[in-house]
C-alpha cells in the first residue's frame, strides 16, 4: 500500500529509530511491502521506515536510473535492517541529493566515498558490503534518516 511520506517539519523525522528485534514477521513483511510500493510510486532511490512514520531501523534502496535520478547507476534492490556504517577512508565527495521528505529540492551533500556497511535482511541474514560512489551515498542518506537527520541539516 502506498503510504504518505512525512515532510520536513514533522517531528517524527527527527527521532532516533528503534532496532528491529524480530525478523520474518508478518508485521515486518507488511512494512516492506508498503515501503516498496511507496518508493516505487515516487521514483525514490531509497526510503527509510521513519519517512512513513514507522519508528524502526529499516531502510530500502536500489534500482537504476529513474525520472528523479536519470544518471543513477544500478544498485541491487536491498532491504537493510539495523545497519552499521563504517567509512573506509576519510575521503569525502560532494554530490547532489534529493529526499522524498524534502520535495522539490536538491542539495549538494558531502558523503564518504568508500563505505563498509553491515546489517540484516528481512530474514535476519547478514548483509556485509564494501561500496563506493552513488551506492555509498544512498546508504549514508537513508541511514541518516534512522538517526533523525535530513540532508539539509
Ligand atoms: Ni531521504
**Based on helices, strands and strand pairing, what is the structural class?**
alpha+beta
**Termini distance?**
30 Å
Number-wise, the strands total 7
What percentage of the residues does DSSP assign to strands (E)?
25-35%
Query: How many helix segments?
Result: 2
Main sheet overview: 5 strands, antiparallel
What is the average of the pLDDT values?
95
Bound molecules: nickel (II) ion
Write down the overall geometry: globular
SSE succession? HEEEEEEEH
Order of neighbouring strands in the sheet with most strands? 1-2-3-6-7
Verbal overview:
The protein is of the alpha+beta class and 153 residues long. Helix content is 20%, strand content 31%. The chain is built from two helices and seven strands; from the N terminus they run αβββββββα. A five-stranded antiparallel β-sheet has the order 1-2-3-6-7, sandwiched between helices. A two-stranded antiparallel ribbon has the order 4-5. A hairpin with a 5-residue loop joins strand 6 and strand 7. The structure holds nickel (II) ion.
Brief write-up:
With 153 residues, this protein is of the alpha+beta class. It has helices at 26-41, 133-146, and strands at 46-48, 58-63, 75-87, 92-97, 107-112, 114-120, 126-132. Nickel (II) ion binds next to helix 2.
Amino acid at each position: 500500500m502506498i503510504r504518505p511520506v512525512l515532510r520536513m517539519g514533522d517531528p517524527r523525522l527527527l527521532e532516533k529509530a528503534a532496532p528491529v528485534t524480530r525478523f520474518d514477521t508478518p508485521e515486518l513483511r507488511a512494512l516492506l511491502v508498503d515501503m516498496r510500493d511507496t518508493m516505487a510510486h515516487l521514483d525514490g532511490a531509497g526510503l527509510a521506515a521513519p519517512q512513513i512514520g514507522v519508528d524502526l531501523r529499516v531502510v530500502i534502496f536500489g534500482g537504476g536510473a529513474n525520472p528523479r535520478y536519470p544518471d543513477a547507476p544500478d544498485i541491487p534492490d536491498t532491504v537493510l535492517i539495523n545497519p552499521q556504517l563504517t567509512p573506509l577512508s576519510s575521503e569525502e565527495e560532494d554530490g547532489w541529493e534529493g529526499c522524498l521528505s524534502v520535495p522539490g529540492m536538491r542539495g549538494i551533500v558531502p558523503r564518504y566515498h568508500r563505505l563498509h556497511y553491515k546489517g540484516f535482511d528481512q530474514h535476519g541474514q547478514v548483509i556485509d558490503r564494501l561500496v563506493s560512489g552513488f551506492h555509498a551515498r544512498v546508504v549514508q542518506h537513508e541511514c541518516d534518516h534512522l538517526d533523525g537527520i535530513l540532508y539539509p541539516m
